[in-house]
Write a structure and sequence with these properties.
Layout: E1 3-7, E2 14-18, E3 23-25, E4 32-38, E5 41-46, H1 47-85, H2 88-110, H3 115-172
Antiparallel strand pairs: 1-2, 3-4, 4-5
């Protein structure tokens, strides 16, 4: 039977391993070892290291699920903030309100008898123009919240990539 001389990775002692041994305890330090055979070579790996690697992989797999859920939830929170931060719709409504107010005044100027038609148009137009500062205020309030949320999403996505790399590396070993 062929004997292979290897070095214990824990204590550095020389150990003899035969072909039929896959697992043993080092006679010098007592740590349990696995004999890893690949492509005509053999090496030793502490059993605790393999257990640790398995625990890291399991923790990463659980973290991937949790982080996926967290990112999805943050994206749901982000949508209304992004809409509030985009005040272009508010500007469009204010512009339409200004046009409506001018049209209402022109109708009244053309025919004073049409006050019943012109007055509501002017009032609606002025109301729409008056909403503009409120919409801009909402946009200004939403912007810092949106930036914080984007930073948190980026952080979670970075963690997610890291955990996916851990799982992929473990699969290639």
């Amino acid at each position: 039977m062929e004997v292979i001389m290897l070095t214990c990775p824990t204590c550095g002692a020389r150990v003899e391993v035969t072909q039929d041994i896959d697992r043993f305890a080092c006679l010098h330090c007592g740590n349990e070892m696995l004999v890893i055979r690949r492509g005509g070579t053999a090496s030793l790996r502490p059993v605790l290291e393999q257990v640790r690697d398995g625990a890291v992989r399991t923790a990463s797999e659980l973290a991937i699920k949790r982080l996926d859920d967290e990112v999805r939830e943050l994206m749901k929170q982000r949508s209304p903030l992004a809409a509030a931060a985009d005040d272009s719709a508010g500007i469009l409504w204010a512009l339409m309100g200004g046009i409506a107010a001018v049209v209402g005044v022109l109708i009244y100027v053309q025919d004073h008898d049409l006050l019943c038609c012109a007055a509501p148009i002017v009032i609606v137009g002025i109301a729409l123009v008056a909403l503009l500062p409120n919409l801009r205020s909402r946009a200004a309030d939403a912007e810092p919240k949106l930036q914080r949320l984007d930073a948190l999403i980026d952080k979670k996505q970075h963690e997610l990539r890291s955990h996916k790399e851990t799982v992929e590396l473990d699969e290639t070993q």
